[in-house]
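--- STAGE predict ---
source: upstream dedup step, 1 unique chain passed
mode: sequence only
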Amino acid sequence: MKVLVTGGAGYIGGTICSALEDQGHTPVVLDSLVTGARAFTANRSFYEADIADADSVARLFRDHPDIACTIHCAALIVVPESTRDPHLYYQENVAKSLSLFKSLVDNGCRRIVFSSSASVYGTVPGFMVTEDAPIAPGSPYARTKVVMEMILEDFCRAYDLRGVALRYFNPIGADPRLRSGNPVKDPSQVIWRLVRTALGQLPEFQITGTDYDTRDGTGVRDYIHVWDLARAHVLAVERFDQLFAPGAENRYRAINLGTGTGVTVRELVAAFEEVFGRPISKCDAARRPGDVAGAYANADRAAKLLGWRAELSIQEGIRDALRWGAVRDGVLGLGGIA
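--- STAGE serialize ---
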């Protein structure tokens, strides 16, 4: 099966491309390389263009009329940045996705898998959320994901489309074969700040937010290995038609992708130090703009509809992140150590 992957030169998108190939599928990559890595497009059909460039999307579909499904990963994802510059996030995530969805309709692509986020949920008692939990995004980034989901759902109702929103929790790790990992020079996600601290690139790791109503005061997250996320996308593509009953009015579904286990930031740090083999320099710090107490997944719907559950442990995610950190620049052709 041939699959269009927007953002396919990025951390998650690049890993999804490898997972597709491992199962005999052919990814076609559309990426502007604003944050993605050209190295992740090697030996793949690659179109360097913006997702809002309708002419480029049309050319891509003329070249590949047998594309069966689109996986839409392209987006900006840094929560504090979204609070500083919401216009950028609404422009890049919402306006450009609107253009992309219209291009997909115009070019006859009827199956869309959308990379959404668990940040769409509000904080609930006990922190575990199902797909029916209240939608209460706490940052401009999270609100862009909500709006993108709403647009896709409306498109599915109005046009001959079906859509699946996969709501990610917190990706960690790298492709276990180290074909891809986070290519961003200064990533903001907690696992990569831990890796950079361990490798001596940051003076200390800041535990941002220690006054949440959690068991140790730090935020609760559901840390899922990026390879498990990638596997879920492959299953969503392969089982896409089975997710919708024949003739049913429901043409849109949301599915959580998480481990089902809540881990605090302090617990993550302890696990990281255990895998790393020694303590790292760390300190407590204030909450970052847009941060919330967090949530973890009820992933029963993914098990039922996709036959998927997370298989890799948090320790494996940490180990693969450290391995990627040690080889990153060599894989990306930058020279030296990350």
